[in-house]
Design a protein that fits this description.
The complex is a heterodimer of chains A (148) and B (201). Chain A is of the alpha/beta class. Chain A has 4 helices and 8 strands; from the N terminus they run H-H-E-H-E-E-E-E-E-E-E-H. The relative contact order of chain A is 0.17. Chain B is an alpha+beta fold. Classes of the chains: A alpha/beta (148), B alpha+beta (201).
């Protein structure tokens, strides 16, 4: 007890961290939709043809089963875009649901290197899996910020 | 009295939920769907085959070759199983397999190979330029390569397109989908007649 009184700021901080961890493991992720939407803007092809190096979509897209397991690509450009083996026509959307956690490699003309990776995480169920998923997302966010 | 009042409410809920569930595809979906590019190729039945001949049926369109040892047999077996799961509805489903290896896949070879899976499957072949044009229209990649054992093979896209009764390219079935999932999506398309499909597009 004396120890707590003496080092109360430390114990308070530890208790706050503990609370955050518990909440992260318990609170269900909330999204309005299961679709993760990416749009290929109008003029992408023309800008590329003009020699501009532009990245429209992230090279890696993260999804999670039961939360955000549907990849939705919308082609707002004036030319067809290749996603995997399929063509998405101008003003057309392509919605691809995933039901297996894995890493998927796709050919994609919207990327400069022509490749796109979709990482599908397992369902962040209550407890440890949810905490792990949130921690992983935080790490991905921080890595992306550092790379910018 | 309360129970009687609850019955219609439950019925509405149950039918509402089931209607929503059946509408959700397990495969990739195009919105709006575009008209499936037409082609005329040599059919495995030794007759000229035009895609529009299948109008009014659901078409499962795949690309592959008969000497394929891993992807094609799995895909064709799953399509055959999916058709079996549909029962009598399977009469309205036509599987069409476009070869990516015309040098080896003659109409006879295609017929014999596909019959192993399901005798109703139709294989189509053509000249290199005819097939290249079809592949381009559908965004299919096919490249000649050597296997680990040094055998010539063709690396090709492994997806299946689902085309509805009105000839619209509706869905893309990724490799590995179960026969149950494929049958599920085919059922959604089978429920729509040509007029409904056209109105939706």
């Amino acid at each position: 007890m004396l120890l707590i009184r003496r080092h109360w700021p430390l114990f308070l901080a530890l208790s706050l961290v503990f609370d955050v961890v518990i909440l992260a493991a318990l609170i269900p992720p909330q999204f309005d939709t299961h679709d993760e939407l990416f749009e290929i803007p109008a003029g992408t092809w023309a800008r590329r043809m003009a020699g501009e190096k532009i990245e429209i979509l992230p090279s890696t897209i993260y999804l999670a089963l039961g939360v955000r397991e549907v990849l939705m690509l919308r082609n707002l450009d004036t030319v067809p875009q290749m996603f995997g083996p399929t063509l998405i026509m101008p003003n057309q959307s392509f919605k691809l649901p995933f039901d297996l956690a894995s890493d998927y490699q796709f050919a994609c003309t919207a990327h400069i290197n022509g490749q796109m990776t979709v990482v599908v995480d397992p369902e962040p169920t209550l407890g440890w899996p949810r905490l792990q998923w949130r921690a992983k997302n935080l790490a991905r966010l921080l890595t992306a910020k550092l790379q910018q | 009295m309360k129970r009687i009042l609850l019955i219609p409410l439950l019925l509405i809920l149950v039918t509402g939920v089931s209607a929503t569930e059946t509408e959700v595809f397990k495969s990739g979906v195009f919105d709006p769907p575009r008209l499936a590019p037409d082609f005329t190729l040599q059919g495995s039945n030794n007759h000229e085959f035009k895609l529009t001949q299948a109008r009014g049926k659901i078409v499962a369109l795949g690309f592959g070759f008969t000497h394929c040892t891993n992807v094609c047999p799995v895909t064709l077996a799953k399509l055959a199983q999916a058709r079996k799961k549909l029962g009598a509805l399977a009469n309205d489903v036509q599987v069409i397999y476009v070869t990516v290896d015309p040098a080896k896949d003659t109409p006879q070879r295609l017929r014999e190979y596909l019959a192993v899976f399901d005798p109703t499957f139709i294989g189509v072949t053509g000249t290199d330029s005819q097939l290249a044009a079809v592949q381009k229209e559908y965004g299919i990649t096919a490249a000649k390569a050597l296997s680990k054992t040094g055998q010539p093979e063709v690396h090709h896209s492994s997806y299946i397109y689902l085309i509805d009764r009105a000839g619209l390219l509706r869905a893309l079935v990724p490799f590995g989908k179960s026969p149950d999932d494929i049958a599920h999506d085919m059922k959604i398309l089978l429920q729509k007649n040509i007029a409904t499909s056209q109105a939706e597009s």
